[in-house]
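Example record

One chain of 361 residues, shown exactly as stored in the release files.
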Amino acid sequence: MPMRSSPHHRTLLADLERRQYFSDSREPFSITVAGVELYIITSPQDMSLVYKNTTTLSFDDFIRDLHIAFAMSISGQDKMWNASKGKCLLHQANDLHREQLHPGPHLNSLTSKVLEQIEFSLCSYDVLVKEGHEGRTLSLYSWCADVLVYTVRDVHRLTDRYSTNANAFKISFWLLTYLLHHPVTLAAIRKETQECVINGEVNIDNLLRCALFNAAFDETLRLTSGASSARTVLSPTQLRNKTLRKDTKLLMPYRQLHFQEAVFGPQVKAFRPDRFLDKQISNSPDFKPFGGGITHCSGRFIARREVLAFVALVLHRYDIELADQSQALPRLDEQKPTLGVIGPMKGDDTTVQIKPRSIQS
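Predicted structure tokens for this chain:
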């Protein structure tokens, strides 16, 4: 059966409006952008079928196109894809990322190094804060970036894929922003995590068991993730009752999955971390902030640990509040393409007042 094509060519593809254009059937549809036909997959069931098909639906070909677009030399491409020793260099690198970043001794070692550096980085802010009797006013966005991008990357030389992606600092920014706008939840998380930060040191295993804190992390990702994944169709491929034509592209935008009341409950545009206390929601196939299949983000485990540790240290090290209680929640810059977490609109930020915590854990 041929696919119907949407005439709409707006920047954000396949969101709820596009699904509604097709009566929210959740069936694959196609759009034409700059003369190129692009298939849009909107249901988690179809996404699962795409993940399983590594024969006629290729992520490698999509990466090849990117290499060409970024003017990689022919010799460089030949070296990248040479599989004479069993696996090409790109696939070997993927295996290495998984070995280093999935749960196990390598991840534990990396986590310890990251925690040490976060704690070290915050020491400079301790001095800065103590110099001001009334505390200090800071850009929260810049503070998160300073600690979680520049310092951690430069000192420990994390893998290029992880450090340049820099999603952790954006998640931290949004999580702290939401908590500052929801002081009851902030207070509850401070109480829940008080045994996880002792004498300024973080127990990451205990943090990972804090239900509300992890629910707030997931809710932040649900609201701010703009991730998507793509494939190239190598030969005619059946997807349910649809035929995907050869040499076309396929896009799986995950953000549109995260705003369904039937899955996530009412007020889907509001920050309500308690919804993720329901395991049925936290394990839902509609929740894909890190993608899935062969493109499932290998940095998702260290990202959670890094963000939880940083936010917990901030909450127990400082009294932190909005510098202006009337300041609005920053707007998401949804018009700018992103590989992960969406940043705030240019000029938007959260300005905070911090001072040493009067009662520290």
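Notes: The longest strand covers residues 228-233.
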